[in-house]
Amino acid sequence: MTTGKVREIIFKNLFDASSIDFEFPTGNEKWWKLLTDLAKDQINEYSNNYFKQSSSTPTSAATAAVVTTAPITLALEGIRYPNVISLESIPSTIKLPSTINIRYDELAKCLVFEGEMLAKEKKELGDLDSSPTSPYKTSILQLFDNSKKRIKRAFMADLVWLFYFERLGIFKILGAILDDYVIKGKFSVENIHSTVSILEKMTQLTKMGISSTVRDRDSSYRRCLGWTSDLGRNMGSDALVNNGFNNLFHKLIQSSLEYYKDKRLAQAIQTTPTSRPSAATVETIKDTINVLKKSIEPFKYGRNHYNTVNGILWVITGMALIRELKDKLGIPFSEIHQYIPAAYSLLVEQKPATSYDTNRYEVHKKCADNGRRILLEVEQLDPTNSDQITAWLDSEEDGIEGYRTAYRSLTGVDLGASGTPAIEQQA
Fold this sequence. Notes:
By secondary structure, the chain is mostly helical. It folds into 2 domains: 3-153, no CATH class; 156-427, no CATH class. It is 52% helix and 4% strand. It has a two-stranded antiparallel sheet with strand order 1-5. A two-stranded antiparallel ribbon has the order 2-3. Helix 3 (42-50) runs antiparallel to helix 11 (304-329). It starts with a helix and ends in a 16-residue tail after the last helix. The model is unreliable at 55-149 (pLDDT under 50).
């Protein structure tokens, strides 16, 4: 099986996933504007990965409505693609608009849930024949153009993404900003500042108990991932811990790294790029994926989906607020990989903004992005199909090696080492 065919299978399965209702917290249009009308920066990319703005208007301000009129087109930061696209025009990151049922109040505009297709351009579409009449090329372009195929929900992979951004310290920074806005007043923000309405709404949601809370997120981390945050570890939670996922996910990483090691060794010995690792290694990975997919089941229950999407909404909003307030905070940087760690140093560690950890943002982002990607794709694979698993492994080496490298930088733990690794975040 080709790597391109595996991508087609993954995309189709994501499109066909059942939708899940999500009710956004009521708010004002300025909050949505902060997320949807950002400058074209990395925070804007995060926002576009998950949300898009709908201009749907409810029939009655007091009546709940379901948003169903989002345009069904391929979109990259709001850019629509023509119906006929060539391989060369497919960008490295493909975002496909999709809707999720959303209830909203008097606003004429709101957010709808939007999925991101994680493609790597030509490498992702690998063996795609350059001929315009290629059956595979035709099928995948039809798949992208099919208006009935939309991502309509979050996955457990998105909870992995949320975990690493919490570990980065976004919620701690946001908490310090809100605490200063409500009580301390050390960093003066005029009432006319564009962020005040968002700060006020987040304060109200926090006081009402419907913000994204440590307890809610930690419950989902424990029940779904078998992980916990540094704050959650001290809360004495009695939530069930999914140790199976924690063990199997890292076993998959470890076995996959062994697969790549064997593959490189086989190619070095036989001096041919077609040399393959042993069948036993592939069988081990198949068995691991089979059981790992079963360990993902807890995400389907309780408030885990809501906690995930709500947490992501607060993370992205928090990063946007940090960017908008960095001058007021005395942070002299303009790049996200600088001002996020600088805000953590200043507001959480109580150190000068200029003494930040230069790698803090990048390594957390790599863990989040690669971890999300790996799990998102694994959930769509058929663990009984050796050809499919092998093709996926061959296409995902950069992602798995990237996760290993970033995780080692964060924790000092090498997931490729022999034996059972000591996972820092294990609950």
